[in-house]
Every structure is written in C-alpha cells, then in structure tokens.
TrEMBL record:
Signal peptide residues on this chain, from the entry's feature table: none
Biased composition range(s): Basic and acidic residues: 350-359
Annotated compartments: Nucleus, Nucleolus
Keyword Phosphoprotein: yes
Disordered: annotated span: 324-375
Organism: Pleuronectes platessa
InterPro entries in alphabetical order: WD40/YVTN_repeat-like_dom_sf, WD40_repeat_dom_sf, WD40_rpt, WDR74/Nsa1
Claim: Secreted is one of the keywords in the record: no
Subunit structure: Isoform 1 interacts (through WDR repeats) with NVL; the interaction is independent of RNA or pre-60S ribosome particles. Isoform 2 does not interact with NVL. Interacts with MTREX; the interaction dissociation in a late stage of rRNA synthesis is required for appropriate maturation of pre-60S particles and depends on the ATPase activity of NVL.
Skewed-composition ranges (Acidic residues): 332-349
Alphabetic keyword roster: Methylation, Nucleus, Phosphoprotein, Repeat, WD repeat
Superkingdom as given in the UniProt entry: Eukaryota
GO biological process: ribosomal large subunit biogenesis; RNA metabolic process
Protein name: WD repeat-containing protein 74
C-alpha cells in the first residue's frame, strides 16, 4: 500500500468513510480503508496535512476521532478522540506547530490539542451553527469562524476570551428588513489583513479588520443558489466559488465581477481547493466526481469517478505539479478508473429477455382495429 499512497497527488474523504487517493499523472485511484467495517459513523468530514513534508495526513471523522494516515507507509498509524459527537461534525481541522492540532465542531467549540494530552490545552466558543473554521496560513494564531446566523469572527488563540474582529450585521434591504447571516466558507487573502467569505444567500463579502468599518468593504452576488465553498488561486486578486447546483465561477475581488465559469459539474459542490503554485482548481461534491480545471483557459483537465459522495479534498503541492504539466499529453477530460472497476469489467453481462405478450394484451390492439373499421 505504501507504493500506491506515494503515487497519489489528490486525497479525498467520502460519506462512506473511505479515504481515497488519486494519482492524476498515472490515471489511477485507490481506496485506503478496511472496507469490511464501513459505517456512517466513519464518514470523513475534514482533511489536512500533518507536517510540512506532507508525509502525514490528518483525517477527521464524523464521530469526533482524528486519524493519522502515513503517505509513506500507506496505512493509518494513529487514532485519537478530539471531541464528542454532541459537538457536531468537524467543520475545521488544522495542524499547529509543535505537534499541535486545532479542531472545530458545528456547535462552536474550537479546541487546541497537544500530542501528550488527552484534554484540550485551550478552548473557545465560536457560537452555534458553525459552518467553517479556517486557520490563517501566515499567522498560526489567527482563526476565522462563521456559520448560520453566526457572522464572521476572527480569533487570536493566545487570547481566546473575545474575538479580535466581529463582523457587523449587513445593512437592511430596500424594504428596511433585516438581512440574515449565513457564512458557508472563508479564506484569508494573502499579503493583506482581509478575509473573503461566501454565504448561503449567494453573496461574496470581503472584510478588512484593519479598517474601522466592520461591514464588508466589498459585496458581490453570484447566481441564485447558496454558495458552499471557495478557494483563492495562487496568483491574482480572484476567488473561486461553488454552489449547491454544481456551478463554479471565478470572481474578481477588486470589482466583484465574474471573470468566467467552470463547466462540467452535475451536483452540489462541497469542497474547492486551488493548487498553491499551479493555475488549477480541484472540486468534488455530490456527483461523486473529482474534477480538475485550468484557471487560465477554464477547461476541464481531469475527471475521476470515485463511486461515493465526496465531502472534502486535499491537494499535494509536490505531485500535482507534475500532473498539471502532463495534462496536454495524456488527454483532456479523460476519465480515470478506480481499481474496483476492473472487477466490474470482468463480470458477465446479463441481458434481460423481452416479456411475452399475454392473451389479453394481444386482444387489445385487435379490438382497436375493429373500432377503426366500424368508424
């Protein structure tokens, strides 16, 4: 299994509890789990790298356990309890320096765990109905949270008593009615203090904690359906967003205009991630496909059918770079087969025989013919 795991450039978590690895360059997909003990209690909700060398993968399950998967050995090496099922599913998972771990549940508990302790060393309450928690890639102590009727909050893990920034309610609409909060995902804009969010009301907001204004400094709308995920490309002032109807678009963060759309999806988007150095974006969701699009020409580069509804994905900065470079030589939009497809291909096809007509069914057309002759 270690040889297979070292080939994988994309990792995905499914509703059935299977960790899936995909080698885009070799057109192969693998399952890493014990398929004889699968259940809904093992549904995977969050993925993150455990170390900068990308040799360990942290996998958050719906029952509150976090498993460590070794990409060198191709197997799970550790499992630890990092929450209770009463806290809700994981809405965020991140590795901290010094073997630390950061988790967040739907009901608001954000906890810091250390390897040598079974209890959290720090904890804060982000409020109810949290949809996403993100750790700043530049400042390891900055954390952003948000959810349904739970606006954007930015926290400092060293001072968890109060958030350092709390977004203010949006201005009332033209009927003087209150506009509700529903933050579905967020990201820290690099080289700035700004944070971009997408909402369940098909809105994109940019907040600037360094300014005295606590309302969005930029508001934009896309489509008519709830937005579910976003990601920031490596270069440019743009953001990629996806919604519940399988629509993905690239928006300009300076003017809020749509630069282009990515086509080919057939189900709701659950996760998006842009490659850290290449102009490509990976997406997964309810249609059971992993798709990789180019951001410059907006074409579909790779498509992988993985048999299960997918919740989350994680890109490797090392392997995917080679895969993106080989896209032109191996075929655009070519579908990758999972290893289980070989079993189905070898099975004998059974054709259903046509049903014989009964006496009553044969009499009906004769009666219709007689009626036409009388007319």
């Amino acid at each position: 299994m270690g040889e297979r795991s070292r080939l994988c450039s994309v990792w995905l978590g499914s509703e059935t509890g299977i960790l899936k690895g995909v080698s885009v360059s070799r057109k192969q997909a693998f399952n890493f789990c014990n398929t004889s003990h699968l259940s809904r209690d093992q549904e995977l909700r969050a993925l993150c790298w455990g170390d900068p060398a990308e040799s360990e993968l942290l996998v958050g399950a719906v029952d509150g356990t976090v498993k460590t998967f070794s990409t060198e050995k191709g197997e799970f090496t550790e499992s630890r309890r990092c929450g209770d099922p009463e806290d809700g599913c994981f809405t965020g998972l991140a590795a901290l320096g010094g073997s630390g771990l950061l988790t967040c549940g739907e009901r608001g508990p954000v906890r810091v765990w250390r390897e040598d302790s079974t209890e959290p060393v720090a904890e804060l309450d982000a409020g109810k109905n949290v949809c996403r928690m993100r750790l700043s890639p530049v400042h390891p102590n900055r954390v952003a949270t948000g959810g349904k009727e739970n606006g954007l909050k930015i926290w400092d893990l060293e001072r968890p008593e109060e958030p350092t920034f709390t977004a203010k309610n949006l201005r009332d609409d033209w009927l003087d009615l209150r506009r509700a909060h529903w933050v579905r995902d967020m990201a820290f804009i690099p080289e700035t203090d700004k944070v971009v969010t997408c909402t369940g009301f098909h809105q994109i907001h940019v907040f600037d904690p360094s300014s005295p204004q606590r309302r969005p400094v930029l508001e934009a709308d896309y489509g008519e359906y709830p937005l579910t995920a976003l990601s920031l490309p490596a270069a440019g002032n743009t953001v990629v967003v996806g919604n519940t109807h399988g629509e993905i678009a690239l928006l300009d963060l300076r003017k809020g205009l749509v630069r282009g759309c990515l086509k080919g999806l057939a189900g709701g988007v659950r996760w998006l991630q842009c490659h850290p150095s290449q102009p490509v974006v990976a997406s997964c969701g309810l249609d059971r496909f992993l798709r990789i699009h180019g951001l410059e020409d907006r074409k579909l580069l790779h498509k992988v059918y993985l048999k299960s509804r997918l919740n989350c994905l994680l890109l490797s900065s090392r392997d995917l770079e080679d895969a993106a470079g080989e896209a032109g030589t191996e075929g655009v939009g070519e579908e990758v087969k999972d290893e289980e497809d070989e079993v189905w291909d070898t099975m004998e096809q059974v054709e259903e025989k046509p049903k014989r007509k009964t006496g009553e069914e044969e009499e009906e057309p004769q009666k219709k013919r007689k009626k036409k002759k009388k007319a």
